[in-house]
Every structure is written in C-alpha cells, then in structure tokens.
Amino acid sequence: MFQRLIKFCVKVVQRYLPEPFIFAVILTILAIALAMPICHQTPVEVIEHWGGGVWSLLAFAMQMALVLVCGSTLAAAPVVKKGIRFLASLPKTPAGAIALVTGISAVACWINWGFGLIVGVIFAKDIARAMRGVDYRLLIASAYSGFVVWHAGLSGSIPLTMATPGTALKEATNGILTEPVPISNTILDPHNLVMVVLVIIDLTVVNTLMHPKGDNVVSVDPQLLAEDEPYVKPATDTPAEKLEHSPVLSYLVAALGLTYLVIHLFVRGGTLDLNSVIMLFLFVGIILHKTPMAYVKAFGNASKGAAGILLQFPFYAGIMGIITGVGESGICLGTVISNACISISNPHTYPLLTFLCAAVLNMFVPSGGGHWAIQAPIMFAAGADLGVDPGLTGTAIAWGDAWTNLIQPFWAIPALAIAKLNAKDIMGYCIIDLLVTGVIICGGLLIWSF
Fold first, then answer.
1. What residue segments make up the domains of the chain, in order of their start?
2. Residues of 207-217 as b/e, b for ≥16 C-beta within 10 angstroms?
C-alpha cells in the first residue's frame, strides 16, 4: 500500500510538475489573479507591485548563488573529496545510505541552513558514486528533506530576529513586542526540540521505507556524476604564472578572511549567518585548493549550476511584491490570508492555524524575511489578544515557512543544480515527507498550546 502511494505521487509529479521556472511563472499569474478581486486592486496597481518587487531579492539571490558555488568549490578540493568519499563508503546497503544522508542533512540544516543544504546533497552525490543499487532520485530527495527543520534551528531567521534587541522588533510588530524573545522560548524550547528530533527520526524512517525494490530502482546516469578534470599547472613559468600558482597568495588572502570571521564571531559576538557561512566556504576553499588558479578553475566549474538561481529569484521577488503590495483599498493579499486564519482561531487552535497560514503563504513568498514582513504586524497582535505566548506564535510561523519548502522548488534550486536533476525527480518523495512531518508538527503545536 505504502509503495503504491509513493509510485502514485512520483508518477503525478513526473507528469504534471513543470520545470521550476514555469512553476514560478504560474505562481505569478495566480497571485495576480487573486490580488485583484480579493484586495480590490486594479491591474495597474498589481503590475506596479510586481515590478517594484522584482529586484528586491538581488542581494539574497547573490548570497544563494555564492553559497552554492563556494560550497561546491570547497567540496571539490582534493582533501575534502577524500574525506567525503570515506564517509560515503560507510553505508553498506541502500537503506543505510538513505538513512545516513537524511540524518546528516537534517542535523546540518538545523545547525545552519546554508551549510546543510549544500553539504547534504554533495554527500548524497558521493554516496551515489560509491554504491550500486541506491535510487539516486530518493537519495537527493532525502538530502533535501532535512531542510524542513532549518527554521526551527540555530539559523532560523524569525526566532533570531525576535531575540535581537532594538527598535526594529517593536516597529515590525506594531509595538506588540517591546522586549526581545529569547531563543530559550523558541529554538531551544523543549517543545520545539522534541518536534525537531521527532521530525528527523520520522524523515529517516520514512525515507528508508520509500526506497524502491528491484527493477523500480532508478540508478544514477554516470554523466551526472562525472567530475571536472583536475587543474593542471602549465609547463611555462612566467612571472605572472608564478603569482597565479603561488600558495603564498592563497594563504595570505585566506588568513585575512578567516581573521575577520574570528573577530566577527568571537570578539564582536556576531552570529553564524549566511554571509559568515559563505566567507567560511570561500576562504577555507582557497586554502584547500592551495593555489589561486586551482581555485579559480574549480570556482568556474561550480558556477555553471547557479543559472536557476539567477533566473528564478527575480520572479519570486515579484510575487512577494504582489503579496505584500497595498493599493488604494488599504489591504494586501498577505493580510487577507492572515486575517482569515485569525477569524476562526481560539487560544488553542491559534498556533496550528498560524502554522497553516504561514505554510500557504510560503508557496508564494518562500522567504523567512518575507513572512516576517507580512505576518509579524498581524499575528503577534492577534496572538496577544488571545493570550498566546509570542515565542509560540513566532515558532509556528517559522515551522510553516519551512514545512512547505518540501514541495516549493524555490529552495531546491541549489540542491538540484549540484545533483543535476529536475524538481520533478524528487518532489514525488517530498510529498510523502510533507504529509508525515505535517502530522508531527501539527500535533506538536497543539500540545504546546495547552
């Protein structure tokens, strides 16, 4: 029965899920079609909201491109390759491989989402090189599935924003949160930690059970695992080439970058945010590739996978502009969705409905910052009126933002670029993960509310 359900989901996705860019275009059209009648906005207003939002994620798009390229370049360093291959040789069965990939990916994403998103897929790809008989589609889906816990983890943008003192928090919540909410009430709350552990265990078991048998296994195309040719130093030795192949230059610039990170993290008390992860990937990679030209060559090879990010992120930024855009009517689509959730809530169902509301919005605005901008002014005020702890409200929004990432191709773009697969190759399995993790998250939020 379970295998039949999996086959059905995989078949439906293969048949009906378009290429991620087409999916972004369809969501754009749907957002426009909803915003005009529901928010009483004119076509001109909606188009202006869309156009005004298109370039709002340029910095974030660059961050995502760099975390993909720098992470892949780091993984291409000879010493890192050797370490990953050793770990990839540990599992002896396809089920063991799926379980190991799922667990490592989820734990890494809980620690830092940018780190986990890249490391999990790179590790999965090396396991595919080392083991015969493992389904490559499920292997990559398992690596991506761990991403569902990121917003309940140490790099979760909403919990960290809530814990940051300053006027920005008060302004974002319309004066509801006047004091920071410590992460002991969100990320490190026992309720949240239990949910994270149960979700990781659940994903590990379910992904393992989903592995097909016999002829149903889809082995990887060897071309997808082909590695780039290692850089070979030219025979000539001009002054310019001596600089290009000097390890001294690599070590000097890497020492500069790593020294800054030490000051930022340990002296100034900064957090390991996305920029810090990129810098870590960049400068450690430069050291491990030894010479500037070796790093340049590996970086160029890795950058080929960033095309999807550069193409699709402006369209999702435009969708966010539509969802948050306020016309002469004084309302936006995000507000309408949030208010619909509030209207049917009581103190015990409010966290669950907040989670579901965030999950719906995430399909159109797959960004933690976007969720905060839309929901913070509304949901915290309603939660305060109902007597719901703000830590629970914020955690519910964070889980909703992360949950539907399992079926939203936006965040899968970097992973798919490394794996050289399409979204339809993994989303059938991700639907199953969505359903089973949803039961745990919904149950956890209900229990937390009592």
1. 44-221+306-449
2. bbebbbeeeeb
Write the burial class of residue 184 (CB in 10 Å: 0-12 exposed, 13-18 middle, 19+ buried): exposed
The pair of structure tokens assigned to 326 is 């306020």
- Written as six digits, the tokens of 33 are 């079609």
- Percent of the chain past pLDDT 90, that is, above it, reads 36
Contacts of 255 (CB under 8 A, 6+ apart): none
CA–CA dist 50, 47 (Å, integer): 5
How far is residue 226's CA from residue 89's CA, in Å, rounded to a whole number?
18
Q: What is the DSSP string of 384-405?
A: HHHT--HHHHHHHHHHHHHHGG
What's the mean per-residue pLDDT of the chain? 86
Q: Give the model's pLDDT for residue 174.
A: 77
Q: If pLDDT is split at 50, 70 and 90, which confidence band does 340 have?
A: confident
For residues 331 and 39, is the Cβ–Cβ distance under 8 A? yes
Both tokens of 323, joined, read 């969802």
> Which value, in Å, is the radius of gyration of the alpha carbons in the chain?
23
Low-confidence winner among 16-25, 290-299, 431-440, 441-450 (lowest mean pLDDT): 16-25
What pLDDT score was predicted for residue 147? 93
